Amino acid sequence: MDNGGFCDDNYQSGSSDDELVDISEVTVDFSEDVPPLDRDYSAGHCKEEWRPNNSPKLMDLLDDTVSGIGTYEDFNTIDWVREKSKDRDRHREIANKSKQSTVALLFSISDAFSGWLLMLLIGLMSGALAGGIDIAAHWMTDLKEGVCLNGFWFNHEHCCWASNETTFQERDKCPQWKSWAELMIGVSEGPGLYVVNYFMYVCWALLFAFLAVILVRAFAPYACGSGIPEIKTILSGFIIRGYLGKWTLIIKTITLVLAVSSGLSLGKEGPLVHVACCCANILCHFFTKYRRNEAKKREVLSAASAVGVSVAFGAPIGGVLFSLEEVSYYFPLKTLWRSFFAALVAAFTLRSINPFGNSRLVLFYVEFHTPWHLLELIPFVLLGIFGGLWGAFFIRANIAWCRLRKNTSLGRYPVLEVVVVALLTALLAFPIEYTKMSSSELISELFNDCGLLDSSKLCGYTSNGGSTSGSVNATAANGLGARLAGPGLYTAMWQLALALVLKMVFTVVTFGMKVPSGLFIPSMAVGAIAGRLLGVCMEQLAIRHHEQDIFRGWCSPGADCITPGLYAMVGAAACLGGVTRMTVSLVVIMFELTGGLEYIVPLMAAAMTSKWVADALGRESIYEAHIRLNGYPFLEAKEEFRHKTLATDVMRPRRGDPPLSVLTESEMTVEEVERLIADTTYSGFPVVISQQSPRLVGFVLRRDLVISLENARRHQEGVVSMSPVLFTECDPPLSPSAPPAVKLRSILDLSPFTVTVHTPMEIVVDIFRKLGLRQCLVIHNGRLLGIITKKDILKHMALMANRDPDSILFN
């Protein structure tokens, strides 16, 4: 094909596209794609060495030495296609050089190995930090109640381990551990003991909460909250500078310990995902291929999310599935392998530290041995329904509270809010045994199956049940009376019911405050309490009516009829699933916590029921709701687009708007380009042939354009405001007196994604989701008509869903 408008006469097609596409019946008009005839390009031949007399050579900015080219501004979305293309080019260059010398071959091997080395370092660093957080949080939680005389750094359990004076009934009491009342007023019983310990408990809780919020507010505002909504947004391609920085890591690690120790209704498991991602981001700076490529960095962050869950629950496989199911936007097979390796290293590191002294990775690891019965699926499904209802209620209540905090004067006093909530939590938690203990200890207590050595009130059974009825006497005669509820169990039941209400209220208020706050443990605690209550009820029902057909065969002498701890575990899974909408990863995490394969079916039934019920009341998980509340440009892959709109309905400019801001490939000067940049806030500009012939040439990013012009003014001799800006491949003829031109074709994306005005929006949305686009251009018969950005799509989807489109805050 001979066309004077094509500058490269030596172009050779490397593929046989003619065999794939039949264009024999198609008439293509290139007349307007050819530059106007008054541009004399010497019949299409580029004179590469031609330039005006005594003028410098046109500057080519293709080299990577120009600092900032290819990077992104804060609160902008990355170009996934460009980043993946850069990585492919880098791989191709390394592969070609590796065939030329031994040094290049060794570099190629080290480059391939660097990813695994980075995963190893992330696992080691995250596991070590998680172990330190667990140890410090356990010690500071016990510090609210007393101190060890053998060494203040020992927590209560470690202090009494070596003591020979502990008794079975009072295993937590030893001479080496002193409460604050015993130290301050020298009493070991009476009202003075209770009042002083109550006062010190509240004081320590207020101190820890105050320090946490002050440190977050002063040094790292991004260290607050769970971090998972922002991690999901970052993994989708959004840039939030500083969110994964070193100061955020340091402050989040310290304040997470303080927040958990204060007794607030929050957990450390969610923030550990943020901590692991901070470790990954910091370590990425030591590896060039991850430092310079945002898409590659997000692959590492996906693996780090798996590491966070691995060290939080001691569940490496569950962590990988959590990253795949819940947070990751782009998860290739290579990332799956590396996530598994990093999660394994992190779990091994945490196991080596042994933070709880029980050779387990979590405080509430349990093992059940009693089989479950088929009819128990009914109460398990009921727990799933409760979990779904709790999840839907929690999301709506928490978002309403956060919106109230955001839109009223309450949000202007974060320190006061945290201190007041901590004060109320401590005042109401201390009198009740099950709210006074930490959430992890509570879950461990509720998961536990009562044995002969247990002295907990939850194991307060009696042989006669306090009754002389015939059925009870028959039960005792059959050897089943040892599991009849006694006064201790009844006391524990009403205390658990009260603790359930308090946990639900305080969790709604606490999540979203300006301290590190996870949601996994509080949600599991709510479900575990509900499950234990239902489990005890089912157990007593089966024991008292064991002769009826429905319960016949459930109970046998010397064995448990029902395991209430199993109900607590199923309830915990149901409530966590209702809030987060996890399914597969949730079941695997709970399976790894219990180590029992036979309980997978109850967990699956509860998790699926919980998700169905919660989805029927609201499609969003708590993380997606917070993403929408904060206005992040996150395009949810699970949300279907069902509306019959076209690209022309969404593109800008719309009717009544000013015309689209474009650059021409050779008609504009440096001054005109700089004025266009100053007068607009767009992230990029389409490049067309001319204003009279708006045929699309490419797309250039605003940041690349600004950096290139600044670099040209500093380093290219003779560049002034009247210097022409060229996006052409050929050098146009210039008069000898004209200033030198600035050639910017190297920063031009010559293959931007385009759609026609008649393209259905459901296809456009799919393109944005699957390719991670930040914008696409709308054309009609080759002419540029408009542009659709990710923010335009999110606003359109919000409008179609009867939501406020202006809630999308960022580009």
Please tag this protein with its features.
CBS-domain; mainly alpha; ClC; transport; 28 helices; 6% strand; Clc chloride channel; 3-stranded mixed β-sheet; Chloride channel protein; transmembrane helix; elongated; CBS_dom_sf; 811 residues
Describe the structure.
There is one protein chain. Among the domains are: 126-353, Clc chloride channel; 377-408 and 489-626, Orthogonal Bundle (Clc chloride channel); 647-801, Roll (CBS-domain), CATH 3.10.580. The strands form five sheets. A four-stranded mixed β-sheet has the order 1-11-10-7. It is elongated and about 105 Å long. With 811 residues, the chain is mainly alpha-helical.
Brief characterization of the structure:
This is Chloride channel protein. This protein is mostly helical and 811 residues long. The chain contains 28 helices and 14 strands.
Looking at this structure, what is the CATH superfamily of the domain at 126-353? Clc chloride channel
Shape: elongated
What is the beta-strand fraction?
5-15%
Radius of gyration: 33 Å
- Helicity level: 40-55%
Q: Give the low-pLDDT segments.
A: 1-45, 47-64, 464-481
Kindly state the number of beta strands: 14
SS element count, helices: 28
Mean pLDDT: 83
Structural class: mainly alpha
Order of strands in the sheet with the most strands? Answer: 1-11-10-7
Largest sheet, in brief, is:
4 strands, mixed
What is the class of the domain at 126-353 in the CATH system?
A: Mainly Alpha
What does the oligomeric state look like here?
Answer: single chain
CATH architecture of the domain at 126-353: Orthogonal Bundle
Enter the CATH topology name of the domain at 126-353. Clc chloride channel
* Amino-to-carboxy terminus distance: 42 Å
